[in-house]
Design a protein that fits this description.
Distance between the termini: 23 Å
Mean pLDDT: 77
Radius of gyration: 17 Å
Shape: globular
CATH class of the domain at 118-285: Mainly Alpha
Length: about 290
């Protein structure tokens, strides 16, 4: 990831199979201390590839699990969009003025990731990601914003292969590949004290950033329509909020939704991978 991973680069990820250990996840609260509602976890059984090996590249065969990886899917949905805000051509003045730091430069080619700390179990990571997705991150100004659990889980799988201890050469940390500078900004912006090295807080930071992108781009291009619904996406990649949010998580919001023209999707293959993982990821069955 570049912005909240947030760094471009290769994560030669091999998903670690770890034993399920106990571990509770603290009750999720919004930036103002409001308690969020829970969300029902989706399930799926189709195995899918691990995290990508390079920005814009489909997952490699060597990084895939034992089952054969599927080809990078098209992001064309079965149904046509129904929102009147599809294919935005111009932006409105942004209501959110506090922006995250710019993305770091790409990580060195061929630089392997490293691991630090004790890995969380699969059950612990599943619980943390689901809890992070269930939080209400904008309880006052946009309480209707909900980050789908499938999106949080798919992003974590794409970024790290659900490895809580992995650190990329560009500095991306943990499950959601959060950059330290972005974590600092998020904590200051939302009045939190998330620890980027803790797998639960790492999940919250990733989901919180997805929520920030949802509001920022939703206000700027979609008239406050915050639906992250694949059914609203047409064959045009810039037609829906979901694609823009996924692209921004990887490439940074300024490269996708600058406010100076239409939405740009500079990383279509990454968007396609995450969109496919939202319905096909083996992690959804964990």
């Amino acid at each position: 990831m570049r912005m909240l991973r947030i760094g471009v680069g290769a994560l030669a990820v091999v998903l670690l199979t770890v034993g399920c250990a106990g571990g509770g996840v603290p009750e999720a609260t919004g930036p103002t201390g409001e308690t969020s509602t829970t969300e029902v976890l989706p399930t799926a059984t189709t195995a899918t590839p691990l995290a990508r090996t390079e920005l814009g590249d489909a997952p490699s065969q060597s990084a895939a699990p034992s089952s054969s990886p599927s080809a990078s899917p098209s992001v064309r949905p079965a149904s046509k969009p129904t929102a009147t805000t599809s294919s935005p051509a111009a932006a409105k003045p942004a209501q959110e003025t506090q922006a995250p730091p710019p993305p770091p430069p790409p990580e060195p080619t061929g630089c392997p990731p490293r691991h630090e700390g004790s890995p969380a179990s699969r059950a612990q990571m599943k619980s943390a990601l689901a809890d992070a997705a269930a939080k209400t991150y904008w309880p006052t100004s946009a309480p209707d914003i909900r980050i789908p659990s499938t999106l949080v889980k798919a992003t974590a799988w794409q970024e790290s292969g659900w490895q809580s201890t992995i650190i990329a050469c560009d500095g991306g940390i943990g499950l959601m590949q959060v950059m330290p500078a972005t974590a600092d900004w998020m904590n200051q912006r939302f009045g939190q004290s998330y620890d980027v090295w803790d797998y639960r807080d790492n999940a919250y930071l990733g989901a919180n950033y997805l929520a920030w992108l949802t509001k920022y781009i939703g206000d700027l291009y979609f008239d406050g329509d915050y639906r992250l619904d694949a059914a609203l996406c047409s064959a045009e990649l810039n037609s829906c909020l979901l694609n823009a949010v996924i692209a921004s998580y990887n490439y940074g919001h300024a490269a996708v939704a600058s406010g100076e023209g239409p939405i740009t999707i500079p990383n279509p293959r990454y968007v396609g991978n995450v969109r496919a993982l939202m319905t096909e990821c083996v992690c959804l069955a964990y």
